[in-house]
């Protein structure tokens, strides 16, 4: 909350020193009070095999199992997914996102981070938008960086997808465009069991 207040003071001071339209002022104020939530993780793929609706990874059909084995023998372990973040605007004026910085965690393990400069318009009075993030990582590279205990917890979470015990956390930092500059808020933490 303190970061949000400091950011708000910074934005207000900048607005007083920078000529702008009332429309820009109201969109900035609206963005600061939007609600963010981690809606879904979809298109979950392991070695190119869609696991979104898979209850048990050990019951793969023979072709899929062969593909996973071949991929493992090649020294890679690709994982990809689409993470969807919802933005709801409770205000009477529209909000405009200029992008987001993000970091994705699975079972407490920081998988990867990045940023999107995707412009997102969020309509007023309860309007909502979804910001999709396509994430890809080679788990073999991640395994080289993390401790054995953390990787066992991570692997256990992957093996039990669909049992609502796998925790996905995303930290996002919304950005606004003002006067040709990009300004970022503090990080917001979003959690979801998958």
What this model shows, in words?
The chain has 194 residues and is α+β, with helices and mostly antiparallel strands. Helix content is 30%, strand content 42%. It has helices at 2-17, 22-32, 62-73, 139-145, 148-159; strands at residues 35-46, 49-50, 78-89, 95-97, 99-106, 109-116, 120-122, 127-138, 167-178, 181-184, 188-193. Strands 5, 6, 9, 10 and 11 form a five-stranded antiparallel beta sheet that branches. A four-stranded antiparallel beta sheet has the order 2-1-3-8. Strand 5 (99-106) and strand 6 form a beta hairpin. Helix 1 packs antiparallel against helix 2 (22-32). The model is unreliable at 1-6 and 15-20 (pLDDT under 50).
Topology record:
Blueprint (H helix, E strand, L loop, with lengths): L1 H16 L4 H11 L2 E12 L2 E2 L11 H12 L4 E12 L5 E3 L1 E8 L2 E8 L3 E3 L4 E12 H7 L2 H12 L7 E12 L2 E4 L3 E6 L1
Antiparallel strand pairs: 1-2, 1-3, 3-8, 4-7, 5-6, 5-9, 9-10, 9-11
Helix pairs in contact: 1-2
Structural key phrases:
194 residues; alpha+beta; five-stranded antiparallel beta sheet; four-stranded antiparallel beta sheet; disordered N terminus
Query: What's the helix-strand series?
Result: HHEEHEEEEEEHHEEE
What is the structural class? alpha+beta
Largest sheet: 5 strands, antiparallel
Principal-axes geometry comes out as elongated
Q: What percentage of residues falls in helices of 4 or more residues? A: 25-40%
- From the alpha carbons, calculate the radius of gyration and give it in angstroms: 20 Å
Low-pLDDT runs: 1-6, 15-20
Number of strands: 11
Beta content: 35-45%
Mean of residue pLDDT? 76
State the separation between the terminal residues, measured CA to CA: 28 Å
Number of helical regions: 5
